[in-house]
Amino acid sequence: MQICRSKATKPLTTEEESFLANIGEAFETAANEEGVERGKALQSIMDKMGDVPEGQTMSAVVRGLAQTIDDMEKKAQRGLTSSQRFNLMAKLEEKRDVIQRARRSGEAWDIEFHAKRAVSGIMTSANTLTGATAFNNPNLYDDMDVVFIQYPKNFILDAINSRQVSKVPANWKWKEQIAGGTGVPTVVLEAGTKPLVDYKFEWKYASRNKYAARIEVTEEEEMDFEQLQLSIINMFERDVLTVYQDAVYAAILTYATTYVSSALDGKLVAPSIYSVIGALKLAVQAANYDPDIVIMNPGDAAEAIYLQTVDGMQQFIPADLQFAGLRPFLSNKVTIGTVIVGTSATIQEQHGAFIIRKGVADGQFITNESTIVGEIFSALKLPIASKASWAVGSVATLKGLLKVVQA
Fold first, then answer.
1. Alpha-carbon distances, residue 37 vs 24, 94, 214 (angstroms)
2. pLDDT tens digits, 178-230
3. Can you name the residues that pair with 378 across neighbouring β-strands?
4. What is the full DSSP assignment across 322-362?
5. Which residues pair with 351 in a beta bridge?
């Protein structure tokens, strides 16, 4: 570089210095070779440099080379769809370690990639895309997003004491105190006899449940609609989990104690859903539990927030008091007009990870078909001794019980 700078008739540009630096490194590498190999290396350098036309600067030559490379890249990319580029990137990602090792050691490496230009015949089948027709127009934007049918959100796993385990036990066994014990602590005089206190317990069990389903696909569908296939599997997983969580909710609804009475009965002039939540909370507190959540339909929740006076005036309720201080879980899975108040710590649930398996059944092998099975295991612990920690009631019924009886 010092020699080049000294011989130059004008200051070198950044591009020229970079080019000359790379040539210098190449000459240094060639100088370390011996005999025939050195000659090959020097000839390779000269071939790459080529002849610089008279009157052009070295920077102009570099810009020309850069433009040539850009043109080659554009030609190489022409005709590739977004899905093909995605698949190519996935293949390169798979070969990352091999490529990096090859760059360090100079070893050869290869990659196999197929880019389909023609539209697959399966596009004409309504089994995969309803109403789809073959469309071979190059002026087409290939949108990779899939539009799903909207389903209600699930909340049970956040509403109760739930955790994921590696293996869900076939039977969940625990000891639970039952009625029938004798004796109570009392005041005892000096040298007096202490009363005998006897507690009784009983073994309780919860059986493991499995929630599962299957879908069947063809090999061609997996090949031609890779991204759609992944989306279908995600939908499949969501649907299995939805059924599982719905079953947990149904079990809790059956487990909760139906509201009978509370200290608010017959005390309110104009009971509302807000009053119903407070009465259910009070019923749980009367059993010496500390409720922390309320489960209800979004429609009932809106009515609980937008309270009005008997004259139709809006009543403002601070956010921390809107649901009687309880943490709300809203879902359309809850029947409108039904409110559940509970203590999350008294219920426990164990579940495994969602399992996906793929295989062939019956005569699927000779028809290039396969079955994908999805399943999840769950065990739910609902102690009988803690039933009073959950209360459920009808909004209409509770409003009638809370309303002041006119004389």
1. 18, 35, 63
2. 788 888 889 999 988 998 898 888 888 888 999 988 888 888 777 766 677 77
3. 209, 351
4. TTTTPEEEE-TTSPTTEEEEE-GGG-EEEE---EEEEE--T
5. 164, 378
Q: How far apart are CA 37 and CA 192, in angstroms?
A: 109
Predicted confidence at residue 325, as pLDDT, reads 85
Measured between alpha carbons, how far is residue 338 from residues 4, 305, 333, 393, 399 in Å? 87, 16, 11, 6, 12
Q: How do residues 224-280 score in pLDDT, each as one tens digit?
A: 666 777 777 777 888 888 888 888 888 998 999 999 999 999 998 888 888 999 999
Sheet with 293-296, strands from edge to edge, namely 257-258, 390-394, 338-342, 293-296, 327-330
The pLDDT, as a whole number, for residue 116 is 42
Sign of CA dihedral 94, 95, 101, 104: negative
Q: Which CA distances in Å does 244 have to 53, 122, 315, 407?
A: 75, 34, 39, 50
For the chain, which domains are there? 2-78 (no CATH), 81-146 (no CATH), 148-172+208-407 (3.30.2320.10)
Q: Which amino acid is at 166?
A: S
Rounded Cα–Cα distance for residues 239 and 236 (Å) = 5
How far apart CA 68 and CA 50 sit, in angstroms, is 14
> What are the tens digits of pLDDT across the range 319-372?
777 788 898 888 888 899 999 999 988 998 988 888 888 888 878 888 888 888
Task: Encode burial over 128-148: b for 16+ CB neighbours within 10 A, e otherwise.
Answer: beeeeeeeeeeeeeeeeeeee
DSSP state of 6: H
